[in-house]
Inverse folding.
């Protein structure tokens, strides 16, 4: 297990390096001049040159890249061109918010998706299955930001059950956190629930036809136990793979949901960085997201080893 | 029928997919005719004071926060959605397909490098990566969708590559290479056609994703500009007036949603149309229904004597067991087992013999109440040591399955759950049925593993099934079947999947266990040779019926049914080494082809007019029971002497 963990972590290093390289050069393709847009229209040529030197963008691209990389390895993602703050500091305020949101969405998606998927598989071909299949097909097509708009309107503006905007100064205490994150998490979790339900259903149907399920029944175990002990764990393997993709999708979706609920998370940071051509901020944003996705995937890889003993041996 | 026709026929039969297809057609028409259909301007309010109007005859879907007509904007929005989707998909295919073909075909370092890039891109959420690319390209609908297309091309690359790898496995590609075809030619003539179905399906689904991405990016303000009435842009505008009304968000949201659903169901329909016919079933539990014995099956035979009357103290008696399945593509049910009678005496080993497709295994599963859905089993009686199993509730039958009946299946690796240790699987019935403590169950499991001949059971108990050889895995299955001390062991082709060298050992084990434990065994096999060393009595099955029963020696010495004779002749060891292995000509017919008269008539070398004149009953013969009208007059050959 430890060897597996070390192996995966080692493999993640070149991946993170590649993401950084790719995004660094992609972002440079933009021809707009950040110094000009920071200083405004009436800045003098000299002031702009001075600003360029201050930001370090008068240097050759490769040396900029090298400098950034050396700092990044030490955990320093540079300075925000527009706010002058440390990007690492700015991001670290926002990471818990987005992670909380994504975790809420994921929790909802896994609980609802897996339960509906298992139920549909056990009732394959009957009305319960048909209803769940239809709901899931619709669910994967719903844009998260549309659901977010509807939820915000009905539950926050009309009914006033939950806050529509982020509490000023941030949520205080677990109660406020939950209150602030319920609607955004639901909006985020709908599509993921539907996707997980579909995958769980098809995986379960496949597993239920396997011989070892028949063996378990032939041993006289009740259906509940056969499903719980013998079927779910094997059906979980493709579902876990999907959850890996869903984590990435949830982090992507959080961009929209954060915008609607005014949540100061990573998403709004990234969108803002794009609008302003704020290269170091954008880089920091992408790196953090990629880092989370990579970590989650390592965790999922480890869970495969638990689910499938064959992987454990090879590990 | 060509593949294309078959796919088309299946697709048109799929109502949901067709509805999706028709809806998409409507969207395309609306998009094309938007300037003609739209009653108002795309971007300008007709009267700027008409703000946030409800739907009316002038404004069909009302107006937005600056007085623009929502219905008209929605129609123009269809243009942006389809254009954006098409752009992203075309970019994705234009990059992904050639790249995937290239790296899938040449492999090596090209593949390694490209795949690292693909992995890098997909490590980041698609929308985030698209945003990074947009940061470089600049904002705007065309640039944004180019970025989305680049991200999606990674998915297409990976898919194409995987399909090329799969196609390469097929022999015809190697054949084409061996025949000297050029690389390009092999790729486009032989590989691409096989990749196409998966690509078509994926493209449809990506189109749906691209429409969602367009709406999302436009919603964020980095897609469609303020002068483009994209659905996402409309949602962005609707957000500005959300504290007054939600209405302007409803039509564009529904438009995105329904278009994406339409693409998805159409794509799913395509996938199903391309896929081979597959059908899922529920968890396989069909209770056995009660049915009165049909007179035709037992004509002239008192029910109690059917199936060989030699079992004076029967552990299992089965009467009139039938199993029917609905036939795919029709409304009819087809009987795969018809009116089986079977007895197994205490401590007796009974062999149920017949070719594949004769209904042996399904008979065994019926006794356990485990006929796979949607099969329907019925019987007038199944008695296990005094208890009637027919119509017994599933939960009650579960108790019997784990304790009184043990089963060994054909494929040990399929029968064992790969996710659990063998010890846990063997101990499970002990813990569940006998309520043993963990420690007691473990100790007993070690004993059981030792009893079935697994060396070093103390350490092997914690191993997983894949760490065993086939023969050893089958011994584990046997230990599991024996755990609660069953009265009856059902062994369904227990050696068929095993290496020839261990088959004999496993049969010896089953024989030993039966003797030591005074346990009855129902041994199901297609190989009469297997039976010879083990069984006391034999029941021969052909095409859903028992055609002969009797004591082992009698059946081998003087078979009373031509089919039995054929089976005996086909035992390899009965043939002189120089001769060819005799076989019974033809195959067991499929259940829906079974005739009303003797089922074996069409393959029988002794067939006469009488054989085809009506159903044949199982009647007493010289040595047992036989379902042959000519049983008495034919002098059928039994086991021959070894040729010298």
């Amino acid at each position: 297990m430890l060897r597996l963990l070390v192996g995966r972590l080692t493999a993640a290093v070149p991946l993170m390096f590649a993401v950084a390289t790719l995004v660094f050069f992609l972002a440079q393709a933009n021809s707009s001049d950040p110094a000009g847009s920071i200083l405004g229209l009436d800045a003098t040529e000299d002031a702009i040159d001075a600003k360029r030197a201050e930001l370090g963008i008068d240097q050759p691209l490769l040396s900029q890249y090298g400098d950034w990389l050396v700092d990044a390895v030490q955990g320093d993602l540079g300075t925000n061109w527009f706010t002058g703050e440390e990007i690492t500091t700015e991001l670290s305020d926002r990471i818990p918010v987005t992670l909380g949101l994504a975790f809420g969405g994921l929790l909802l998606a896994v609980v609802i998706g897996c339960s509906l998927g298992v139920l549909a598989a056990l009732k394959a071909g009957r009305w319960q299955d048909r209803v769940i299949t239809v709901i899931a097909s619709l669910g994967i097509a719903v844009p998260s930001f549309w659901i977010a708009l509807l939820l915000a309107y009905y539950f926050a503006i009309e009914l006033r059950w939950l806050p529509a905007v982020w509490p000023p100064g941030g949520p205080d205490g677990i109660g406020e956190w939950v209150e602030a994150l319920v609607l955004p998490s639901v909006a985020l979790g709908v599509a993921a629930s539907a996707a997980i339900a579909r995958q769980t259903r098809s995986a379960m149907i496949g597993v239920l036809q396997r011989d070892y399920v028949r063996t378990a029944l032939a041993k006289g175990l009740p259906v509940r136990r056969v499903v719980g002990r013998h079927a779910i764990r094997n059906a979980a393997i493709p579902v876990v793979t999907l959850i890996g993709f869903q984590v990435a999708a949830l982090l992507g979706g959080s961009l929209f949901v954060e915008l609607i609920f005014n949540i100061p998370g990573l998403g709004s940071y990234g969108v803002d960085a794009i609008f302003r051509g704020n290269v170091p901020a954008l880089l920091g944003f992408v790196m953090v997201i990629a880092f989370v996705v990579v970590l989650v995937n390592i965790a999922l890889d480890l869970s495969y080893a638990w689910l499938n003993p064959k992987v454990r041996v090879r590990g | 029928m060509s593949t294309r026709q078959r796919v088309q026929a299946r697709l048109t039969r799929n109502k949901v997919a067709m509805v999706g297809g028709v809806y998409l057609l409507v969207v395309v028409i609306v998009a094309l005719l938007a300037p003609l259909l739209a009653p108002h301007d795309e971007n300008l309010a007709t009267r700027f004071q008409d703000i946030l109007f409800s739907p009316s005859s002038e404004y069909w879907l009302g107006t937005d926060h600056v007085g623009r007509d929502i219905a008209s904007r929605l129609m123009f929005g269809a243009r942006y959605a389809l254009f954006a989707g098409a752009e992203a998909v075309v970019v994705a295919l234009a990059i992904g397909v050639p790249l995937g073909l290239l790296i899938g075909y040449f492999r090596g370092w090209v593949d390694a490098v490209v795949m690292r890039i693909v992995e890098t891109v997909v490590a980041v959420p698609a929308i985030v990566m698209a945003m990074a690319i947009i940061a470089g390209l600049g904002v705007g609908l065309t640039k944004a969708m180019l970025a989305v297309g680049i991200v999606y091309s990674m998915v297409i690359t990976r898919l194409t590559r995987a399909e090329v790898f799969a196609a390469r496995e097929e022999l015809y590609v190697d054949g084409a290479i061996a025949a000297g075809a050029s690389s390009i030619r092999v790729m486009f003539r032989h590989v691409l056609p096989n990749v196409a179905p998966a690509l078509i399906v994926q493209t449809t689904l990506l189109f749906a994703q691209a429409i969602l991405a367009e709406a999302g990016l436009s919603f964020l303000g980095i897609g469609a500009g303020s002068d483009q009435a994209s659905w996402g842009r409309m949602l962005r505008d609707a957000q500005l007036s959300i504290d007054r009304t939600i209405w302007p968000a409803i039509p564009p949201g529904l438009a995105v949603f329904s278009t994406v659903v339409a693409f998805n169901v159409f794509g799913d329909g395509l996938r199903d149309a391309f896929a081979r016919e597959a059908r899922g079933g529920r968890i396989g539990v069909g209770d056995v229904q009660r049915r009165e014995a049909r007179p035709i099956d037992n004509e002239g035979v008192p029910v109690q004597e059917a199936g060989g009357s030699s079992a004076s103290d029967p552990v299992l008696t089965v009467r009139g067991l039938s199993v029917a399945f609905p036939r795919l593509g029709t409304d009819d049910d087809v009987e795969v087992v018809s009116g089986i009678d079977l007895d197994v005496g205490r401590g007796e080993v009974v062999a149920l013999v017949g070719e594949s497709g004769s209904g042996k295994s399904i008979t065994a599963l019926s006794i356990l109440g485990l006929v796979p859905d949607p099969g329907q089993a019925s019987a007038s009686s199944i008695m296990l040591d005094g208890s009637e199993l027919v119509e017994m509730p599933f939960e009650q039958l579960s108790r019997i399955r784990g304790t009184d009946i043990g089963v060994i299946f054909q494929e040990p690796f399929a029968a064992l759950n790969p996710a659990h240790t063998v010890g846990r699987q063997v101990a499970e019935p002990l813990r569940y049925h006998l309520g043993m403590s963990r420690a007691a169950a473990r100790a007993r499991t070690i004993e059981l593993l030792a009893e079935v001949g697994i060396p070093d059971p103390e350490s092997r108990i914690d191993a997983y099934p894949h760490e065993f050889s086939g023969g050893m895995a089958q011994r584990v299955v046997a230990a599991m079947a024996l755990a609660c001390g069953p009265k009856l062991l059902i062994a369904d082709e227990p050696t068929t999947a095993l290496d020839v060298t261990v088959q004999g050992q496993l049969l010896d084990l089953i024989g030993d266990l039966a003797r030591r434990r005074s346990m009855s065994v129902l041994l199901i096999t297609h190989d009469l040779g297997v039976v010879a060393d083990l069984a006391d009595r034999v029941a021969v099955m052909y095409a859903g019926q028992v055609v002969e029963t009797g004591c082992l020696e009698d059946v081998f010495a003087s078979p009373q049914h031509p089919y039995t004779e054929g089976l005996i002749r086909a035992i390899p060891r009965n043939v002189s080494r120089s001769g060819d292995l005799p076989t019974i000509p033809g195959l067991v017919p499929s259940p829906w082809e079974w005739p009303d008269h003797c089922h074996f008539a069409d393959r029988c070398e002794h067939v006469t007019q009488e054989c085809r004149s009506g159903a044949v009953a199982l009647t007493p013969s010289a040595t047992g029971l036989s379902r042959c009208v000519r049983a008495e007059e034919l002098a059928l050959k039994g086991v021959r002497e070894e040729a010298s």
Observations:
- Chain B touches chain A through 84 residues (CB under 8 Å).
- The first helix of chain B runs from residue 3 to 13.
